[in-house]
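Figure 6 in text form: structure in, sequence out.
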């Protein structure tokens, strides 16, 4: 397993498993508990900077087309630029396994990102279908809110 950029599919399962372990309340005695996810009060909804990270494994021979679609002047960036709350995208390639990529999409807030995705759903789905043609696997690694923002 590549520690810098593991297989997106198994890495996504690992992240979900780790998050479940972190968010599940487990008493130390008594019967096995039902899983209960920690719920944050509505007042804790993040309003500061937001980042969404995706990992991709690209089909052999499709790297150039993938980089055009997801790169700095690609269709994804053009779609996201429709929002004044979009701050930018970074495309990263694994130097040891050149068919592995990570995208980092930056937004002014999670709420604005989610609103944009709802409003642009049909165009998003068109681009997503184009991207699926080029990839073997894809996984959302994280949806992050900066602490203290």
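Output sequence:
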């Amino acid at each position: 397993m590549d520690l810098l950029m593991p297989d997106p599919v198994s890495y996504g399962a690992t992240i979900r498993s780790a998050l479940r372990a972190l968010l599940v309340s487990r008493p130390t005695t008594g019967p096995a508990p039902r899983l209960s996810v920690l719920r944050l009060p509505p007042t804790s909804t993040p309003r500061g900077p937001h980042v969404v990270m995706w990992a991709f494994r690209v089909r052999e021979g499709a790297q150039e087309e993938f980089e055009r679609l997801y790169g700095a002047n690609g269709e994804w960036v053009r779609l996201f630029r429709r929002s004044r709350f979009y701050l930018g995208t970074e495309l990263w390639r694994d130097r040891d396994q050149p068919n592995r990529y990570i995208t980092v999409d930056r937004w002014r807030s999670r709420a604005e990102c989610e609103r944009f995705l709802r409003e642009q759903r049909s165009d998003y789905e068109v681009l997503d279908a184009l991207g699926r043609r080029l990839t073997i696997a894809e996984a959302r690694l994280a949806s992050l809110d900066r602490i203290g923002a």
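Caption detail: The longest strand covers residues 135-145.
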